[in-house]
Amino acid sequence: MARDILKTLKAEHDELKQLFSELNETTDRGVKTRENLLQKIEAALMPHAKWEEKVFYPAFKERADRDGLKTHAEALAEHHAVENSVIPEVHAADPGTPEFAGRTKVFGEFITHHAKEEENTMFKMARELFSAEERAQLDEEYEEWKQSDAAMALIAGEKAKAGMKGAVKSMTQ
Ligand SMILES: [Fe+2]
Ligand SMILES: [Fe+2]
Questions:
Q1: What pTM did the predictor assign?
Q2: What are the Hemerythrin-like domain coordinates in residue numbering (predicted)?
């Protein structure tokens, strides 16, 4: 089967949804499990979201019509809401509490909603805007990028930012 960036991104969405459903089933006493699952979620989400923002969204935007531009703006606004509000709230909660359970539930709902929108609108449009060869090429580039030092540095920076924003949130809540 030919490589296709849209299939890879969709598979990552599915993986994230699975991790969130596992996280939803944990109890307040399952602190280790919660920490573990949150770590897995962030390890899967951060490269995905950052590469979309840096490569895929701009490439899509360049070819998009008016509807596409709206979809692009919507997707980006959702990324920002997750990065600036949803994730910091999760980090501001103690994993052994109902607050953590509630906030990670919202986190999962945001991601599920966003993934569905991407798949049903943006990816659908992208299938028309990018040839099979281009989609295969993007898929290879994404795989290489994920293993690069630049990506690792970016992810480490994002993690530090999430932790800091969480610390600020916990002081103000
Ligand atoms: Fe996205
Ligand atoms: Fe995505």
A1: 0.94
A2: 5-126
